């Protein structure tokens, strides 16, 4: 995503949990800033300062409910509040398909979806211009640039690279403002798919 943003002329500040984690982004030409969502909220305000947009793609590595609540719920909420305090205008949240109907799946899936639902709803009620992108299961398949987008879709999959393209393209598509949508791999070029969201 850093590469895509830079290619489109954006100035990128990549939030990372440690300077070492930021080496890849720095090599591409992004500024890096330490921004651990589970750490000090004030540091997040500093990390957001001067930005026009925050894109939160963080997610707990561990599916345990305590980790998910720390990062995907409380961490995402902390990022929203930090963006508000820093005067950021726009916030894109990488959520998950079915986060808006979390009463399904096993215990771990439910707690994950519930964490996303809570932070997504805080974002929707914030002062920020928001977008909630809800991908299906993520894969490491190659970039296709083709997706399927709708308010709600059947269960499916999408590559991480195509999700990155959707997030970046959302910055140029006003229809994605103050809207949440599902996204899966598909047949329609990303820009056209976003321009036809109903
Ligand atoms: N995997 C799926 O099938 C799936 C499906 C739907 C939605 N999602 C969502 O999509 C997003 C990306 O998922 P993924 O599978 O690509 O996850 P991933 O590879 O594990 O990446 C998660 C990222 O979150 C960062 N992170 C973790 N804890 C953090 C913290 N406390 N503060 C700041 N950053 C933190 C990690 O940083 P480090 O590099 O330092 O570890 C990592 O860069 C997540 O929000 C996830 O919930 C995933």
Automatic annotation (TrEMBL):
<dbReference type="InterPro" id="IPR036291">
    <property type="entry name" value="NAD(P)-bd_dom_sf"/>
</dbReference>
<protein>
    <submittedName>
        <fullName>NAD-dependent dehydratase</fullName>
    </submittedName>
</protein>
<feature type="domain" description="NAD(P)-binding">
    <location>
        <begin position="2"/>
        <end position="174"/>
    </location>
</feature>
<dbReference type="InterPro" id="IPR016040">
    <property type="entry name" value="NAD(P)-bd_dom"/>
</dbReference>
<dbReference type="Pfam" id="PF13460">
    <property type="entry name" value="NAD_binding_10"/>
</dbReference>
């Amino acid at each position: 995503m850093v590469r895509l943003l830079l290619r489109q002329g954006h100035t990128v500040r990549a939030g990372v949990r440690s300077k070492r984690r930021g080496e890849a982004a720095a090599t591409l030409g992004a500024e890096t800033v330490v921004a651990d969502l589970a750490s000090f909220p004030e540091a997040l305000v500093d990390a957001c300062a001067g930005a026009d947009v925050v894109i939160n793609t963080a997610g707990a590595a561990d599916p345990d409910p305590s980790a998910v609540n720390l990062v995907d719920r409380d961490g995402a909420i902390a990022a929203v509040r930090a963006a508000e305090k820093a005067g950021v205008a726009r916030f894109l949240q990488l959520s998950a398909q079915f986060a808006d109907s979390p009463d399904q799946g096993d215990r771990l899936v439910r707690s994950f979806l519930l964490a996303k639902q809570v932070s997504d709803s805080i974002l929707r009620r914030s002062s920020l211009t928001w977008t909630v992108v809800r991908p299906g299961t993520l894969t490491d398949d190659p970039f296709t640039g083709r997706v399927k987008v709708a308010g709600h879709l059947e269960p499916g999959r999408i590559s991480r690279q195509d999700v990155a393209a959707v997030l970046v393209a959302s910055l140029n598509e006003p229809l994605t403002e103050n809207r949440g949508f599902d996204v899966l791999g598909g047949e329609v070029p990303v820009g056209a798919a976003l321009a036809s969201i109903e």
